[in-house]
Specification:
Length: about 300
């Protein structure tokens, strides 16, 4: 029985049909589409301009649904999330202000709180959004002395009831009594106050920056100099702070947000970067520099 020979025309027709189907299928996926991407690394809070972004052809299948496709669509928007060079600019990372995206990152019972930092207290500008930090609080005797002096200098009328002329009712004409003035601590104190705080925002001018090897462009040198100058003079960073009271010493419950605000205003704060999996430690002790001096002095004799 003889095998029937297939016509070469049939094979060619099938091949052409398959080729058209493949082209039609891929055209919707690999069709180049113009979208906006970051030209360089951009930090949260950056005001987007045409100089910071560029148009790039991307296969249609790899373009996010909310990708920005025109520079005009930026309209002076700010980034709420950092972008690396080549990252898509999408509507989900844009906001009217630098902090527009921060409220959505806060859980119930949390606040966004800014504290002052410099190169020494801010880990040399190595802090970035999303990292967790511990806060070391410090108080000196001068701070407490000033606080006590502020209350002692209030007008007497605010501290004692106003006497009524000719009245002999006890309590309305009290006889001033000598009261002991609280004595402030005689040595500075330091203690790890709060751990596990998430960093929400770090200004671009405070970030640590190095020039690439062999780079000597005026623009890069100027940017590095500006960052160094800003870090030296000080800046602020924004933290995610819980409002649930915590016990910072036996029997002493404090609202973390209030504690940080008070230490930032009347004391000093030092930040410390935590490991990726969080900080694990035992008892937290308060360091009294007066006790430390006496201890070291005794051992030296």
């Amino acid at each position: 029985m003889e095998n029937k020979k297939r016509s070469p025309i049939t094979v060619i027709v099938f091949a052409v049909l398959i080729g058209f189907l493949v082209i039609a299928l891929l055209s919707t996926t690999i069709r180049p589409t113009q979208v906006l991407v970051a030209k360089t690394s951009l930090a949260p809070g950056t005001l987007l301009t045409s100089e910071l972004v560029e148009m790039r052809s991307i296969p249609a299948g790899g373009v996010p649904n909310d990708a920005v496709r025109s520079v005009d669509a930026l309209n002076g928007k700010m980034l709420t999330v950092g972008r690396a060079s080549g990252d898509f600019i999408t509507t989900s990372v844009l906001g009217e202000t630098a902090a527009s995206g921060i409220p959505s990152q806060l859980e119930a019972g949390h606040l966004a709180l800014a504290i002052r930092v410099n190169l020494a207290s801010g880990v040399a500008g190595l802090i970035r959004e999303g990292q967790t930090i511990s806060v070391i609080g410090m108080l000196s005797p001068e701070v407490l002395q000033n606080a006590f002096s502020a209350t002692q200098n209030l007008p007497v009328g605010l501290l004692l009831p106003t006497p009524i002329p000719g009245s002999t009712i006890p309590g309305l004409n009290p006889t001033p009594e000598a009261t002991a003035t609280p004595q402030p601590l005689q040595a500075p104190l330091a203690r790890i106050a709060i751990t596990g705080l998430k960093v929400l925002l770090v200004p671009q001018t405070f970030r640590y920056q190095e020039l690439p090897p062999g780079s000597s462009s005026n623009e890069q040198m100027f940017a590095s100099s500006m960052n160094s100058s800003s870090a030296q003079s000080g800046s602020v960073i924004v933290l995610d702070v819980p409002t649930t009271p915590v016990e910072i010493a036996p029997g002493l419950m404090v609202n973390p947000a209030t504690l940080l605000a008070a230490l930032d205003e009347y004391g000093k704060l030092h930040l410390a970067l935590e490991p990726v999996d969080g900080l694990k430690m035992g008892d937290v002790l308060t360091l009294n520099l007066g006790d430390l001096y006496e201890s070291m002095n005794k051992k030296g004799k």
